[in-house]
């Protein structure tokens, strides 16, 4: 793979001998080891390696590369084909436990398992999030470098606008808004009008920090409609000190020092192929499920849980794996009248029409396949609706008040699909749809990642298939809290208003707005996840001890950080990839400062 800096795969016969010597006689050593090649890990490893300090950096990824899997390449290039990657070798599909879910479903949560992480299998929606979330991070952690004003230059370092704009930043990840896309969506004007008619205020840019209203989609897609993944960081760097190992699974962290609660230092990563030492630091960027899982397997976590699994306690950290948040979502669909059918995502499920769209994209770089069939987003604050529920709930903490009841925060997001939405099976021969996806951005419900029976013993065994990750027990507890259900109901009611508005009258078959009870049944049937996980190694705040400090250093040990969406203390009102890149970028700054 010539475009990347030195990339080695453990699948190659010579790998073990080259890296670990004959019979494993040597232990490779780097200044820094970054575990996990998703957006946070790639941004962090590249920025560290580009530092003038001349660090040597090893990036470890359990999956293989897109280039090693040519049969999946087209699907990773085109966001609209994302669905075909679900269940492929690039996808972990984390199983979850369903007992506390409102819908009692055992979800399988897709997650990338390939160099580039979930950016290779995601939808390509690009949202930085509201400035008020970052300002609250800064306020609650006491670190002003996490405020919106301090994050803005970080986002500009990541992004590259495909159109020429006045203040055009030039980072590795190309982004564009839907009006700059050659997608040529027939429904755009009608959809915008319907949002106006439903009372939404037009936003000029959904990424300028103020998000209440409706605005255009921004997507991380390059000039030819190709998805920009975290691999862009690796392709664009010439840093000599960066080495990438793929198909290598990190099992646990190895410590030296006193143990117990004394000074203990992380010095090496035990992988399924051998031990690798870090002279300065080890950083976990393995995502919101695997970063806490690796900590637990290494002896950092709630003492009682570690004792139950027979894992020697390095440091008692009760919050590891707790506070798991995610964004639940539910599609509402209205049928297009049969004589009004035009291009929608259903076309891609029919060979005849999909061929036409594929040809158009291949020959002209245009058409609906050159992006996702979404153009408009809405963001709504529901403070007035949820305050009465929270006021009568005596378990409501100050922390929850400070995050949930802000008048500026978007509680729910909606996006308009030209097609059947993300959760329904395509139905090309029967009918075609316009859908609204309703996303709960600020759930109060929390889940957890914990050790599954046998995890520790399994982690000791070696070798095993490097791309078969260890599975912890995952509870997401979607809509467990009443207030979460209320926010979802409010969003769905609004979705009915939008799709029943005058603008859609001649195009859509009418549907009566269901009762509250009927909406709850719809939610039960269609509830799923938007694959945004976070919070499991949260930053310390005024209210919570957390797992890491505000520069992502793990409490109680030295030489170890977590840098990925796990550190986000409360659900951010945004799709999470831009935030993950920003966390990787920030971590490089914090680490560089500690190791001049
Ligand atoms: C189907 C889908 C659609 C999505 N759509 C969007 C979207 O449109 N917009 C958006 O903003 N976000 C979206 N997301 C979410 C976004 O992609 C993630 O939030 C983001 O990728 C998280 O980044 P991360 O670096 O924290 O972790 P990840 O992307 O999960 O990367 C972690 C990496 O670590 C590796 N790893 C894990 N354990 C180990 C180990 N033990 N050893 C070695 N390597 C390991 C994994 O293989 C993976 O490559 C979507 C996600 C999915 C799955």
Automatic annotation (TrEMBL):
<feature type="binding site">
    <location>
        <begin position="531"/>
        <end position="532"/>
    </location>
    <ligand>
        <name>FAD</name>
    </ligand>
</feature>
<dbReference type="Pfam" id="PF05199">
    <property type="entry name" value="GMC_oxred_C"/>
</dbReference>
<dbReference type="GO" id="GO:0050660">
    <property type="term" value="F:flavin adenine dinucleotide binding"/>
</dbReference>
<feature type="domain" description="Glucose-methanol-choline oxidoreductase N-terminal">
    <location>
        <begin position="287"/>
        <end position="301"/>
    </location>
</feature>
<feature type="active site" description="Proton donor">
    <location>
        <position position="532"/>
    </location>
</feature>
<keyword id="KW-0274">FAD</keyword>
<feature type="binding site">
    <location>
        <position position="114"/>
    </location>
    <ligand>
        <name>FAD</name>
    </ligand>
</feature>
<feature type="domain" description="Glucose-methanol-choline oxidoreductase N-terminal">
    <location>
        <begin position="112"/>
        <end position="135"/>
    </location>
</feature>
<feature type="active site" description="Proton acceptor">
    <location>
        <position position="575"/>
    </location>
</feature>
<dbReference type="InterPro" id="IPR012132">
    <property type="entry name" value="GMC_OxRdtase"/>
</dbReference>
<dbReference type="GO" id="GO:0016614">
    <property type="term" value="F:oxidoreductase activity, acting on CH-OH group of donors"/>
</dbReference>
<dbReference type="InterPro" id="IPR036188">
    <property type="entry name" value="FAD/NAD-bd_sf"/>
</dbReference>
<dbReference type="InterPro" id="IPR007867">
    <property type="entry name" value="GMC_OxRtase_C"/>
</dbReference>
<keyword id="KW-0285">Flavoprotein</keyword>
<dbReference type="InterPro" id="IPR000172">
    <property type="entry name" value="GMC_OxRdtase_N"/>
</dbReference>
<protein>
    <submittedName>
        <fullName>Alcohol oxidase</fullName>
    </submittedName>
</protein>
<comment type="similarity">
    <text>Belongs to the GMC oxidoreductase family.</text>
</comment>
<dbReference type="Pfam" id="PF00732">
    <property type="entry name" value="GMC_oxred_N"/>
</dbReference>
């Amino acid at each position: 793979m010539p475009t990347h800096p030195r990339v080695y795969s453990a699948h190659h016969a010579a790998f073990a001998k080259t890296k670990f010597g004959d019979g494993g006689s040597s232990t490779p050593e780097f200044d820094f080891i970054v575990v996990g090649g998703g957006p946070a890990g790639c941004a962090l490893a590249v920025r560290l390696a580009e530092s003038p300090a001349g660090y040597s950096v090893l990036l470890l990824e359990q999956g293989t590369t897109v280039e090693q899997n040519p049969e999946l390449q087209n699907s990773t290039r085109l966001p609209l084909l994302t669905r075909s990657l679900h269940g492929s070798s690039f996808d972990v599909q984390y199983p979850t436990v369903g007992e506390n879910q409102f819908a009692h479903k055992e979800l399988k949560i897709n997650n990338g398992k390939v160099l580039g992480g979930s950016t290779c299998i995601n939808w390509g929606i690009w949202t930085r999030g509201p400035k008020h979330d970052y300002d609250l991070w800064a306020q609650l952690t006491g670190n002003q470098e996490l405020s919106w004003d301090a994050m803005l230059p970080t986002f500009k370092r990541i992004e590259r606008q495909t159109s020429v704009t006045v203040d055009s930043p030039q980072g590795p990840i190309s982004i564009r808004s839907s009006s700059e896309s050659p997608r040529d969506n027939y429904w755009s004007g009608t959809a915008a009008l319907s949002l106006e008619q439903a009372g939404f205020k037009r936003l000029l840019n959904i990424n300028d920090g103020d998000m209440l209203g409706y605005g255009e989609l921004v997507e991380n897609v390059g000039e030819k409609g190709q998805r920009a993944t975290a691999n862009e960081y690796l392709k664009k760097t010439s840093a000599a000190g960066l080495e990438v190992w793929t198909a290598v699974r990190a099992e646990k962290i190895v410590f030296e020092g006193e143990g117990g609660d004394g000074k203990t230092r992380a010095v090496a990563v035990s992988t399924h192929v051998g031990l690798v030492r870090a002279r300065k630091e080890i950083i976990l960027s393995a995502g919101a499920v695997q970063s806490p899982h690796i900590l637990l397997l290494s002896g950092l976590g709630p003492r009682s849980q570690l004792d139950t699994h027979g894992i020697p306690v390095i440091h008692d950290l009760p919050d590891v794996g707790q506070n798991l948040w995610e964004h639940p979502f539910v599609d509402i669909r209205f049928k297009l009248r049969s004589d009004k059918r035009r291009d929608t995502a259903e076309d891609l499920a029919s060979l005849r029409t999909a061929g036409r769209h594929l040809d158009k994209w291949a020959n002209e770089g245009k058409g609906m396949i050159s992006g996702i069939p979404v153009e408009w987003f809405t963001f709504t604050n529901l403070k007035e609706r949820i305050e009465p529920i929270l006021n009568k709930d005596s378990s409501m903490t100050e922390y929850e008040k400070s995050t949930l009841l802000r008048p500026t925060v978007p509680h729910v997001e909606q996006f308009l699909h030209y097609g059947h939405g993300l959760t329904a099976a395509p139905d090309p021969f029967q009918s075609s749809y316009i859908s609204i996806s309703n996303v709960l951005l600020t759930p109060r419900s929390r889940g957890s990642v914990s050790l599954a029976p046998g995890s520790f013993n399994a982690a000791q065994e070696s070798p095993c298939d490097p791309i078969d990750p260890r599975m912890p027990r995952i509870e997401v507890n979607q809509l467990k809290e009443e207030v979460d259900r209320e926010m979802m109901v409010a969003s769905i009611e609004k979705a009915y208003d939008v799709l029943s508005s005058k603008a859609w009258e001649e195009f859509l078959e009418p549907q009566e707005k269901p009762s509250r009870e009927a909406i709850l049944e719809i939610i039960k049937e269609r509830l799923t996840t938007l694959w945004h996980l976070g919070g499991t190694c949260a930053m310390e705040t005024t209210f919570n001890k957390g797992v890491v400090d505000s520069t992502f250093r793990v409490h109680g040990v030295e030489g170890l950080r977590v840098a990925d969406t796990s550190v986000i203390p409360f659900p951010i009102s945004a799709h999470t990839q831009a935030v993950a890149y920003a966390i990787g970028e920030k971590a490089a700054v914090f680490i560089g400062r500690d190791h001049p």
